Amino acid sequence: MTQAIPELVTFEHFAAWRPEGGRYELHDGVIVEMAQPVGDHEDVVGFLALNISIDIGRLKLPYFIPKTVLVKPLEGESAYSPDILIINRPNLVNEPLWKKESTVSQAASIPLVIEVVSTAVASSRETRPTHCLTNWRDDYYKKLADYEAIGIPEYWIIDYAACGARKFIGNPKLPTISIYQLIDDEYQVTQFRGSACIVSLTFPELNLTAQQIFQAGGLLT
Asked: Which of 72, 115, 150, 170 has an alpha carbon 20 to 30 Å from 91's alpha carbon atom?
């Protein structure tokens, strides 16, 4: 059986093609339709976005959370659509792709990026939920490496369904929040579970425990 080789496209082609509906990313020149997230995933994203937005407003930070902005590594033909992206508004004047493509590539524009690993529906044509799709590999391997290369100061992986490999979240596998912080151009990770209060350099006054984030959608009782 012959498997078709996907056609590789440039970022420029992808940006011009990207439709209004659906969520798509570009992985090394391959257009990827992102899995349709289930309710628990959306509850976690909404809970975090609300609490971070409150902190942004209270501290009067020059940040905002966009809806459909892409993060493009400087090298290669990839572009990602994070679950939560914090944008530093003053640096957008230095972003060459901002005005026409709603895309950022500079670390100074991206104080924090958050990916939520979750159960999901496999695609727009698939209605059967799948427990843990392989997108956890993108979050822990590919995006981790690319966000580090960009120099994004802080990257969170919210793994509420414990989908990641044991080498990332331990054995036994438990719901885990991994916070990667850039130190000497390399990510160093600190992990949070249960009642541990998360520690963020970007939002040091964000008073949330891992359990509160996991409970956002009734994920833990």
From this structure: 115
Burial class (CB in 10 A: 0-12, 13-18, 19+), 160: buried
Its domain, for residue 116, covers 37-217
Q: Please give the model's pTM, rounded to 2 decimal places.
A: 0.89
Whether the CB-CB separation of 129 and 41 falls below 8 Å is answered with no
CATH code of the domain in which 127 resides? 3.90.1570.10
Q: Each residue's pLDDT tens digit in the chain (221 positions)?
A: 444 556 899 999 999 998 877 789 999 999 998 877 788 889 999 999 999 999 999 999 999 999 999 999 999 999 999 999 999 999 999 999 999 999 999 999 999 999 999 765 444 444 333 445 557 889 999 999 999 999 999 999 999 989 999 999 999 999 999 999 999 999 999 999 999 999 999 999 999 999 999 998 554 44
Q: Of 123, 158, 164, 139, which Cα lies nearest the Cα of 31?
A: 123
Is 1 part of a structural domain of the chain? no
- Classify residue 97: in a domain, yes or no: yes
If one counts the domains in the chain, the total is 1
In a domain, residue 68? The reply is yes
Q: How far apart are CA 26 and CA 42, in angstroms?
A: 22
